[in-house]
Design goal:
It contains 9 helices and 10 strands. It is of the alpha/beta class. The strands form 2 sheets. A 6-stranded mixed sheet has the order 6-7-8-3-9-10, sandwiched between helices. Strands 2-1-4-5 form a 4-stranded antiparallel sheet, covered by helices on one side. The longest helix has 16 residues. The protein starts with a strand and ends with a helix.
Amino acid sequence: MPLLDVREVHKRFGHNEVLKGISLTVEQGEVVAILGPSGSGKSTLLRCINQLERIDAGDILFDGQSVCYRPGTTKHLPEAEIARVRSRIGMVFQRFNLFPHLTALGNVMEAPVQVLKRPRDQARETAVATLARVGLGARLNAYPAQLSGGQQQRVAIARALAMNPKLMLFDEATSALDPELVGEVLAVMRDLAAEGMTMLAVTHEMGFAREAAHRVVFMDEGVIQEEGSPERFFSDPATERARNFLRRVRQQ
């Protein structure tokens, strides 16, 4: 049984159908990179997996259970159940979304205390270890305004990891960073991949997709155009659309 099983998912915003029957599985320990042009539905797919957007048709199973519907029905899960599912799926966004009034340590402690109801001393111990894991052990007491963009994004990754997720979703985690700061975030993502974290990453970083992913999924116009190993995708893409995409990326 795959850890994540996306089944014929459709999503519309008004008359605009953004996802047109997406099916995708992710195995435990697998790193999948989702590539494609802007507007292809990549970020919407991640938001549906984490139930930040309700799907219009299809289903999404995480760890064998639907994240969309009550068992045996087409009734959407109540918010409390969705929150429980989200606690097991970490998500890192383009923007860091840190609490400006909390230190790096406070930001990472917040969800384990408020959502998981962990004792503060236990949450603090986990947060200290997690911030050290992303290279910020010396910045525990720094506020977001005192951190670079790359450091803030690493705090955001630590915040997600502190919940001990079974799956990590990355939605273009480096796209809001200055070019010189991209590498430090990608290094953390590569380390997580090497440690066996299950990851689904929407990214424009072709080097990360080539080196760290087990599989590449190429999306365009709300559908998966092709998927396969990074070696095959980057050396011999199967579709003309993917070939054009890679040609443009290499010219940038």
